[in-house]
Specification:
The protein has about 160 residues and is α/β, with parallel strands linked by helices. The protein is built from 5 helices and 6 strands; from the N terminus they run βαββαβαββαα. The two termini are about 15 Å apart.
């Protein structure tokens, strides 16, 4: 279950857009319009967004975690952040935000330590030359899980 936003009317959606799948961005675009919620895509490259008073793109300077820092700096408690980046998700939770990955999995205080440990372990393996493979292919069930979690957040926001 998604925690309720602290200030329902002011809650926003932030998207770590550099690695967000296009199909997820499309779901978010439609949801932002339908629910009239402010959404900002943050990336270190120019992004095309639909013409909307609710949807913005913010291009940050290139650099290690520049988009992550910008999201955390602007984030308010109760805001939703869409990201695959586990360290960013941990920072979002620390600040009172809600973190959701594009496969519809919520990052929570209960699962964050395990996810950070696994990420660090896999990073160590890759650093020592072990091929760990990439993420699993993105499926329709991932899209559906994401849309369902997003709908829950939007419903609780009202």
């Amino acid at each position: 279950m998604i925690p309720a936003p602290m200030t329902a009317s002011a809650s926003r959606i932030w998207v770590d857009a550099d690695a967000c799948p296009g199909v997820i961005k499309e779901i978010l675009f439609r949801a932002a319009e339908r629910a009239q919620v402010e959404m900002t895509l943050v990336a270190n490259q120019w992004l095309r967004t639909p013409s909307s008073r609710f949807i913005r793109a913010l291009q940050v300077a290139g650099g290690f975690d520049a988009a992550d820092h910008e999201i955390v700096d602007r984030l308010a408690a109760g805001d939703l952040v869409v990201t695959q980046d586990i360290p960013l998700a941990a920072r979002v939770l620390e600040k009172g935000g809600i973190a959701l990955n594009p496969r519809g999995e919520l990052y929570t205080a209960n699962n964050m330590a395990e996810r950070l440990s696994m990420r660090n372990f896999l990073e160590e393996l890759r650093g020592s030359g072990v091929q760990t493979g990439g993420p699993a292919a993105f499926h329709a069930r991932d899209r559906l899980a994401f849309a369902n979690q997003l709908d829950r957040w939007l419903a609780q926001r009202r």
